[in-house]
């Protein structure tokens, strides 16, 4: 129980950091925080989506961003932001 709660808190904290990095246009920071979440929860839609947004900001990351957006839609077909 304690480990599950610790993992949940870890995920929330890194998702919040990733969102802050997105707002600051810190694409590398966003990717680092989302990658940490995805180690614990590989199907976390918010983390995958935020990483996709960050990756889409660099030419070298566009293909990876597309793969992330596709994964978001696979996990959550009704995700309006990922479709745009």
Descriptive report:
The structure is a single chain. Helix content is 77%, strand content 0%. With 84 residues, it is mostly helical. The protein starts with a helix and ends with a helix. The mean pLDDT is 95.
Largest beta sheet, briefly? none
Strands, count: 0
Structural class: mainly alpha
Number of helices: 5
> What does the average pLDDT come to?
95
Q: Note the beta-strand portion.
A: under 5%
Question: Helix fraction?
Answer: over 70%
Order of helices and strands: HHHHH
Global outline: globular
Rg on CA atoms, Å: 13 Å
Q: What is the rounded distance between the termini?
A: 38 Å
**Low-confidence spans: pLDDT under 50, at least 5 residues?**
none
Q: Short summary of the structure?
A:
By secondary structure, the protein is an all-alpha fold. 77% of the residues lie in helices and 0% in strands.
List keywords for this structure.
84 residues, mainly alpha
């Amino acid at each position: 129980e304690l480990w599950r709660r610790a993992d949940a808190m870890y995920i929330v904290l890194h998702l919040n950091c990733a969102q802050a990095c997105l707002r600051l246009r810190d694409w590398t920071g966003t990717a680092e925080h989302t990658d940490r979440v995805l180690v614990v929860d590989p199907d976390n839609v918010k983390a995958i989506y935020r990483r996709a947004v960050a990756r889409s900001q660099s030419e070298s990351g566009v293909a990876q961003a597309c793969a992330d957006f596709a994964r978001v839609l696979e996990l959550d077909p009704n995700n309006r932001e990922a479709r745009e």
